[in-house]
Amino acid sequence: MDVIGEVRNCVKTECEKPSSRYGMGPFYDHFEFVVKYAKDLAKKKNADEEIVTIAAWLHDIGSIMYGRENHHETGCEIAEKLLLELNYPKSKIERVKLCIFNHRGSNNFERKSIEEQIVAEADVMSNFDNLAGIFKAAYVYEKLSQSEAKKSICEKLTRKWKQLHFEESKKTIKPKYEAAMLLLK
Questions:
Q1: Are 7 and 58 in contact (CB under 8 A)?
Q2: Is the whole-model pTM more than 0.85?
Q3: Where does residue 164 fall: left (phi above 0), alpha (psi -120 to 50 degrees), or beta otherwise?
Q4: Residue 126: which of 42, 23, 20, 26 has the closest Cα?
Q5: Distances 143 to 9, 70, 123, 136, 138 between C-alpha atoms, Å
Q6: Secondary structure, 3-state, 123-177
Q7: What is the rounded CA–CA span in Å between residue 81 and residue 85?
Q8: Helices 32-44 + 114-126 axis angle, to 10
Q9: What pLDDT, in 10s, does the model give residues 63-77?
Q10: Best CA proximity match to 129, nearest among 33, 47, 13
Q11: Domains of the chain, start order
Q12: Cβ–Cβ < 8 Å for 15, 26
């Protein structure tokens, strides 16, 4: 069985549901970027690419299904249930769950494995590929004015830039960060 393919399809199905608050945007404009960056970093850092890929697909599933608050916790519950149904090894499920639980930059959780750091890092990196989505969130969900949104997004991207740990990530994101700052300031 292709566990990664099954996980990807599950995430896509949840995004497609009418009950999904965000629609398909996160699937194409966030999840796919996180997975791309996570797989690339896993190769460069000699990490477990399977664990990283599954966790990257599932890291925000709690947000899609139940909302952003505590989505790192609900995401772990969803991942465990899904992966058990797919007969994925329990020891690997625990590693995936740690990646999901520790992916949030705002929580400053200690990441003990390279896989946990990679998923968190890939999540941060994806922000620089979806400025339109960040603006949408500022206008639609946060109901900010244009000047408030501009300031908020500039601050967010600066925080995200500072969260990058790997030199490979900084090298990849630096041109995007600099371009965004040039346009926002």
A1: yes
A2: yes
A3: beta
A4: 26
A5: 32, 22, 24, 9, 6
A6: HHHHHHHCHHHHHHHHHHHCCCCHHHHHHHHHHHHHHHHHHCCCHHHHHHHHHHH
A7: 6
A8: 140
A9: 999 888 889 899 999
A10: 33
A11: 3-130 (1.10.3210.10)
A12: yes
Q: What tokens does 56 get?
A: 């990257």
Terminal Cα distance for the chain, rounded = 49
At residue 104, the pLDDT reads: 76
- Kindly give, in sequence order, each residue whose CB lies less than 8 Å from that of residue 37, ignoring residues fewer than 6 positions away: 56, 121, 122, 125, 126, 169, 172
Residues 77, 66: Cα–Cα separation, whole Å: 12
In this structure, are residues 121 and 166 in contact, taking their beta carbons and an 8 Å threshold?
yes
Per-residue model confidence as pLDDT tens digits over 102-157: 997 666 677 889 999 999 999 999 999 999 989 988 998 899 999 999 999 999 99
Question: What is the rounded CA–CA span in Å between residue 161 and residue 49?
Answer: 24
User: How far is residue 184's CA from residue 167's CA, in Å, rounded to a whole number?
Assistant: 24
